[in-house]
Amino acid sequence: MQACIGHMKENGGGVILNMASIAGSSALADRFAYSMSKGAVIAMTYSVAKDYIQHKIRCIASLRRGFIRRSSTATCSAITR
User: Which of 34, 44, 55, 76 is catalytic?
Assistant: First the structure.
């Protein structure tokens, strides 16, 4: 983001889209670090949106994909609600 915000300011604005996960707002059991890092992405998104709105730079609330069952997630516990 730091690399592009300067260019966006010079060009009159822009849009930043961050990707996160549902784990950032509804923690996954046994996945502390992953859930914590995705929560940080969500918080950063809102913070950047507030900091740069006056420059017409929008930071879109991060997309939060749902939990997808596949071989790499087979050992994950169910999402804690």
Answer: 34
